[in-house]
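Researcher: For the annotation table, I need structure tokens for CWF19-like protein 2. Please keep the output clean. Sequence:
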Amino acid sequence: MDLEFAKRIVADSAFESNLDYMDEKADIMASKKGMSEEQKMRRAVTDFKRTQEALEKCKFCYHDNRPPQACLVSLATTCYLALPQVHELTPGHCMIVPLQHVSSMLECDDDVWTEVRCLMKMFHAQNKGCIFMETVVNVRSQRHTAIEVIPIPYGIYEDAPAYFKEGIMGSDEEWSQHKKLIDTSTKGFRHSMVKHLPYFHVWFGLDKGYGHVIENAQRFPYWFGKEVIAGMMDIGPELWRKPRYHRFEDNNQRRLEFMKDWRQWDWTAAFVIESGTKKRSKSGTYIVTGASRGLGLEFVKQIVANGNRVFACARNPDNAPGLAKLVDNQKVFAVKMDADDEASIKTAAEEINAKAPEGVDVLINNAGMLSAMGSTFETWMICSRR
């Protein structure tokens, strides 16, 4: 369905989604107001400028191998999990963000929903329900979309559909061209909503949800979903209308706190992501960051057990007893590297390249290291678990 056809549907208040109606109105639906070449050119230039501006200012996109400004937790092939830049509405509040700059989740593929399932499992284990929301107020603004994930106690969660139904029915225009409430439980989200129209959608599970086509952005605030949840839980407006921003320097601590619960459900545990400017066969030589303890040390042990060489990067490798026991001149090379110091990373990369001219595979067990270490080598991988 293209944009012009979507506009025809919007303008037709009596539109019916069946073949008989569309066959009867085929000529009207197919009609298209002509545009002069000058108008087409102006529109193309305007759209291009709008796209470039949206990409340059986007806080969710990677820019020249620099990570997004969002507090990134885990990274997959098509999306990543991040914490909101503003104060959370409830504990565990996070976001699912597609890597590609898209204006709605209708443009995304099935891989994104793998993370949704993992998040639901995590919050279920904590005896919490989980509400997933997406708000696309203006499609033409090309704002990078995201699904907000807000966990709430099960006792309140059971009443959430009723609260959102009431909120949606009382929102936007009093008289609308579309159904106020679209139940996406039967056909599913992607078969119920229209890609080129602004909308709000809330999921109460993988199969149950409500959608709403936004007809007047001025009467439908961006914080609508948060306001409904705040009403359910008696949360003050300071956390949903204009919440305060977190300090950037607090992101590491916030990430660590969230990972305590998230780690066992991390959807990247099932695979390794391979990317870079040049793919090649495995060389049998690996780099492991954060190799002195935890998952990093586990990676080192596993790689050595499989007969491969390892460059084990750590801030103080000489003071890491677990790593020291593994280091020898044949299989494990200890490299001093401070992940927070660009000069230290560059020095480590030069040392590794000198000792492994045939190339290496980089295992990064911390998604935050992607921009620092991954861009230094031709081939890199991200691994959250063995």
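Researcher: And a one-line annotation?
Model: Residues 37-57 form the longest helix (21 residues).
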